[in-house]
Amino acid sequence: MKFKTLLFDVDDTLLDFQLTEKKALQALFQEEGLFLTDEIEATYKKINSQLWREFEQGKINKETVTDTRFSLLFERLNKHVDGKKMGEQYRHHLSQGHDLLGNSKEIIERLHSEYDLYIVTNGIAKTQYQRLNDSNMTSFFNDIFVSEEVGYQKPMKEYFDYVFERIPSFDREKTMIIGDSLVSDIQGGNQANIQTLWLNPTKQSTVPTIQPTYEISRLDDIFSVLE
Ligand SMILES: [Mg+2]
Fold first, then answer.
1. Which ranges does the record mark as transmembrane (predicted)?
2. I need a labelling partner for 208 at 20 to 30 A (CA). Which of 14, 73, 187, 190 fits?
3. What does pTM read for this prediction?
4. Is the domain defined by 5-16+100-226 classed in CATH 3.30.70.20?
């Protein structure tokens, strides 16, 4: 067999994070008696991704991301809020979201009988565990590695070293990471010297420095790569 170990990203690979995020924001705004417009949602996403970028560059810690993203958003709406408290409420809503992306669960169930499956996800441990449990998929995975617990995140080499050390009789040549993020998943896999499968449903173009081994537009197509 070409592969023995498959490492799966979660958000926008197995679970529909776009939908989860939208629902969580809607629930939060509803509690505040406010209406979430497309414009506010876009502003939130901009603020959030900027904060995560600064976190990835080591400029701020994770608490600054989760505790200030809403105070920054509401500052722009001229409303003063307790950013930390709102951040907690939001994460609670986020942890409730476990909408599957397509037929990902059936695919995982089928792969489970032939391969050793692992979860490799960047995020908050409590949130990710709850979402995976609620999706009824955890039993198909040998282990779950959430960046918060690992202490490093994808694409850092240290993150992958930590994961590989914990996979019994790990065989680098027979290991592949599957994910939608060109940086976290594909660049991470490149740096960790394993094969990579890029889930690219929106046909984004790649960059010269990051090369996936395989590319698919729907997760179902994974079977043709594994054969
Ligand atoms: Mg992802």
1. none
2. 14
3. 0.90
4. no
